[in-house]
Amino acid sequence: MEKKIIFVLVEHHDKKVHPVSWELIGKARELAAKLDNSEVWGIVLGDELENICNEAIKRGADKVIYVKNSRFNRYINYEYQTAIVNVVKKYNPEIFLIGATLEGRELAGMVATKLETGLTADCTGLDIVSDNRTGKKILAMTRPTFGGNLMATITCPQHRPQMATVRPGVMKSLPIDPKRKGEIIVENIELKDLKKLIEFLETIPVKTESNLQYAPVIVSGGKGVGGPDGFKKLKELANLLGGEIGASRAAVKAGWISDEYQVGQTGKTVRPILYIACGISGAIQHIVGIKESEIIVAINKDENAPIFDIADIGIVGDLHKVIPALIDKLKQL
Ligand code: FAD
């Protein structure tokens, strides 16, 4: 019986892997356990990336396809598309997972179009289910839809590979297992016939202050914070807890805080150990971004606020009183 392959694209910049790639390898292992006779394969494009290939194996890949060419050290969409389409045609994976990053979103669409297969973008959940028409095991891909008011589960019963992009921060990566062994397959893809369509000029790094996505503690503020000054207190609390601040879209739209701090469907998906929602009502579009948090604490003056439906600990009260009291207590410790 032919092995079923789950491909995961390992995205990297300056020899650093985007954490979503490790999260996807972790998830792919879980899916492989439900899909008979299957393996997880990483795809790494670039040169001098042997360390990344080895790490992919130690994090759960059975094999790594290493498309070795220094041109791939820099992402150029149609060059990546050519290489990846070649590799997919050669190995016929059953499933192909890509991080829903800026690059991944673009590339996945380009690859799916060339392969004439389906793509579910921006997934927040993946599972293996039985196709009720054929009984075969297929990938169920879940993502928010209708402006975040519904969660849709989508399958791709006919075309292969079944492709999904997945939001960073949703899945859990596996710890490195130094003893794990696997195989690295080096592939050479010819690009010389490819017309040069894009010329690379320079990289301008985006200045970002927020380390929100992977912070262990997030103190998040909504419309109830009342203005930009309110976020100063939230920052103080976040600092005391070794965390970061976040915000609802309403607070961002009001201009109280920059959009890099927005959590939710159109912001970042987070899964901290502790998420403290201050003056946030708990709209579904906010909840989809925080529901994987280990502990959710909600502070809201309205006892009927929907945020209390998902909170592990609820504090009914005025955040302008509760937060300074928490800060004072923490300072005494
Ligand atoms: P509100 O709903 O106005 O709630 C404010 C809360 O603060 C209330 O519950 C109130 O009781 C409480 N409060 C007021 N004063 C105090 C006080 N002194 N002490 C304690 N509590 C107080 N939203 C997101 O957050 N993230 C997204 O990514 C996102 N994406 C969206 C995408 C689409 C397509 C759409 C249509 C909407 C999206 N939204 C998103 C918006 C979302 O629907 C809500 O409008 C938004 O989350 C509300 O923000 P909020 O809870 O801060 O404000």
Description:
FAD binds at residues 248-249, 262-266, 279-286, 300. Belongs to the ETF alpha-subunit/FixB family. Helix 3 crosses helix 4 and helix 5 packs parallel to helix 9. The longest helix is centred in the N-terminal third of the chain and has 16 residues, at 19-34. The protein is an alpha/beta fold and 333 residues long. It contains nine helices and 17 strands. The site of flavin-adenine dinucleotide has 30 residues, from helix 6, helix 7, strand 16 and helix 9. Flavin-adenine dinucleotide (FAD) binds next to helix 6, helix 7, strand 16 and helix 9.
Short structural description:
The protein is of the alpha/beta class. Helix content is 28%, strand content 27%.
Could you tell me how far the N terminus lies from the C terminus, measured between alpha carbons in angstroms?
Answer: 61 Å
Put simply, the count of helices is 9
- The gyration radius over C-alpha positions equals 22 Å
Major sheet strand order: 7-11-6-1-4-5-12
> Poorly predicted ranges (pLDDT <50, ≥5 residues)?
none
Task: Describe the secondary structure blueprint for this structure.
Layout: E1 4-9, E2 12-13, E3 16-17, H1 19-34, E4 38-46, H2 50-58, E5 63-68, H3 77-91, E6 95-99, H4 102-115, E7 119-123, E8 125-130, E9 137-145, E10 150-154, E11 162-166, E12 183-187, E13 217-221, H5 230-240, E14 244-247, H6 249-253, E15 274-278, H7 284-287, E16 295-300, H8 307-310, E17 313-316, H9 319-332
The chain binds flavin-adenine dinucleotide (FAD).
